[in-house]
Structure formats: C-alpha cells, structure tokens
Amino acid sequence: MEDFEWRISIAEIDRATSYSVFSGIDRTQILLTGQGLGLRAASWRFCLAEPYQSVDFSGDTAVECELINGLCTVLNVMVRRELMTAEAEIIRGSFHRALDGMHHVFFVAQGAYEICCPDVPVTRTLTAGNGLRLDAGGHMLRARTVAATEAVMIAVSFRALQGK
User: Fold this and answer.
1) Which domains does the chain have, with CATH numbers?
2) Do the Cβ atoms of 140 and 130 come closer than 8 Å?
3) pLDDT band at residue 2, thresholds of 50, 70 and 90?
4) What pLDDT sits at residue 1?
5) Which of 82-86, 138-142, 144-148 comes out lowest in average pLDDT?
6) CA within 20 to 30 Å of 37's CA: 56, 77, 113, 163, which one?
C-alpha cells in the first residue's frame, strides 16, 4: 500500500470486521448495496443507513464496522493526503460538465449511461458495475441515461495538492 497516490476499490462486507489502518491515507466509503453499515472509531460513530450515503475518515484511525442487516457492498476511495485530495459525488440522471482536476473516475452504480467526451473523442455505454477513467482536466463530459429506469453514477475527482 506504499506505492499509490489514489485508489478505488469495491468490497463486499459480510461480517463485522476491523478495517486496516493506512497511515497517511484519507478515505471515503460509499454504501452501494445493503441494509446498512455501522462504523465506529475511538472518537466517532457513523451509520451508512441507505445506498449512496458516504463517510470520510482518516486511514490513520482504527475503525470497526458492523452490519445492520446483512451483506453490504461499498465503494472505497483512498488518497495519499500529502499528495492529493479526492471528491466523490453521487449523480442521479443525465448530466453535462467541464472536468477539472487531474484524474476522474465515473462508476455506474445503477442503470446505464451513454458517456460522450467530444474533445477526446470517446463514446461508451456503461452499465451498472462498470466505470470509466479520464486523466487530465479540461475535457467536457456528457452522460445521458440510456433507459427509462433510474440511473446513478458516482463521480470521483482527484486533484494534486499545490507544489506536488
């Protein structure tokens, strides 16, 4: 775990457990599926009670988790705090935006999207469980839902700290 600037992963949690401590790492955890997850550290408690709720915490902190009512799936975002920051956003439905920052990851949590980045050019259809990584800012991105069902995307933007 010493050789990354940022990392995204998906984990299934099927029992109460202790999270690994990652010194120097800032973490964001987003509940994707399940009936809830309770997190507890020495100085705080937090409950991810419904899908797409998130919590930010330091990887330096020892954290215990317990399931509220069965199996949960989470999206984990980690950044080395001395080098970068990360911002995760839950987007429902179609959107169009300019991308700033260094790296961008778009993960489809529900439904399907057609992704178009006209200045790259790239057009992709992404379904639930799939994602797209774009490096460097300055691009325009359009995402439109493909079907009439609800679509949810998690957009994560990574930015280098000044002078790094």
Assistant:
1) 6-80 (2.60.120.10), 84-160 (2.60.120.10)
2) no
3) low
4) 56
5) 138-142
6) 113
What's the pLDDT tens digit per position in 70-120?
Answer: 999 999 999 999 999 999 999 999 999 888 878 899 999 999 999 998 776
- Token digits for 20? 């690994």
For residue 102, give the nearest of 39, 164, 27 by alpha carbon: 164
> Which DSSP category does 58 fall into?
E
Alpha-carbon distance of 97 to 159, in angstroms, equals 17
CB 127 within 8 A of CB 93: no
Q: What CA–CA distance (Å, rounded) separates 137 from 159?
A: 10
DSSP three-state, residue 14 = coil
- Write down how long the chain is: 164
To the question of pTM greater than 0.90 for the whole model, the response is yes
